[in-house]
Structures are given as C-alpha cells and as structure tokens.
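Reply to dn_fold:

You asked what the input looked like. This is it:
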Amino acid sequence: MSALLTTSAYLLRSVAVGERDLILTLLTESRGKISAIARGGQASKRRFAGALEPLQRIELELTHAERDIATLNAARIERPYPALSLRLERLDVAGRALRWARHVLPPRVPEPELWASLERLLRDLENAEDDGSAELFVFGLELLEIVGVAMTFDKCGVCGRPRPEGRSAHVDVARGGIVCTSCGGARRTLDAETLDALVHVTRGPALGVGLELIEAALSVHTSYEEGGTAR
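and this is what came back:
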C-alpha cells in the first residue's frame, strides 16, 4: 500500500533517466534514506522550483511505498545554505559528507542522530573561517558511531585502556582506532602530536590524517570505498 508523505530531506544523488525523469537518492527526516522518481524532473519548473539541487534542505511531497521506489509529487526549498557557495572548499567538504551518508546508511531506516549531525555540519560550515576540515572530522566520527563502528584516539578501541596524552600509539581502523600493545598493537603508528590534535580536534595538518582514517574505516566496515565509490 502507498501513502502520501510530506517530509524534509537532503538530496544525496540525482541520476537522469531518459530525457525527462530523475531518480533521486534522498536522506529524509522521517524515513531515512529512500529512492524516489521525479517524473519530468529534468524539465519541470513549477512543481520542483529549483529544489532538486544538493546542499539545501527541501520539503517533499511523496507517494511513498514501503518496499518500492517513491514518487516525488512536489518539492520546495525549505532552508538554503547560501554561504556554502562562497568558498569552493566548503562546498567540497559538504559534498564529501553527503557521499559518506549515501554509501553507509541503510535504506528506509530513520536516523535522527545523523539528521541532526548533518544539519549541524552545514550550519557550522556556513560560519567556518577555513575549509571546514574540523567540522567534517567531527561529523565523520559521529557517523562512524551511528553506524556502529566508532573510532577513538584517546583509548584502546579493543579493551578501552586510556592512552596517556603525549604518547604515540598503534592505529587500526578495523579495530576501533588505537590499539594498545596488550591487545596486539597494529602495523601503523601515529605520533603523540597527531593523536593529541585528533582528540582535541585541533585545526592543522593532523586533520588530514584524521579524515584519511575515517574514510579508511568507512571502507573497511561499509560499502564505501576511499574516493567515494561503492563496492
């Protein structure tokens, strides 16, 4: 059975079908990640009014079926983020977050924590004074925790033993971040300065390492592959 559904959403992906239609992947507030077809979406100006673009919160009216693809009836822009377009780096960061969400979230499972985290990220990016790497790193850690594969840099991901601040440690993204020697350690070691910067989310080069580790963890535990493709 189908039902009429009105919900807020973010567009995760849009794929053209033929000359008129679009297949959309959407993160909705009430139903989680769903797919929908926008008939005439490539040309319709009245029903969709510029709403079928990424990086803006939109309100959708859908004919929704639990097992089948939904049909998009109408859409409007609910909350734009105009400041994101002022710096290309922030657009890239926001797009990266949406790619992560698209690949790792299961379909048709409401994710209120992830929804709140994404909204917070986009608001923070509007006010960010740099490229937004710190904001993306925090979002990535929250995403990993939400999908059940949390990663930590202040304690062993296996036994929970705290890492003394100022000490280097072994890191294994498949085992929850740092791994103490009692739990077998790991091949990769990060120096104390980098680990302390990640714990305190200190802006600087360490965040590049942190983002690399998040993408590696997503690749190990989910359908995401580093570079943004699905397995």
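Strands lie at 2-17, 21-28, 32-38, 56-65, 70-80, 169-172, 177-179, 188-190, 224-225, 229-230.
Hope that clears it up.
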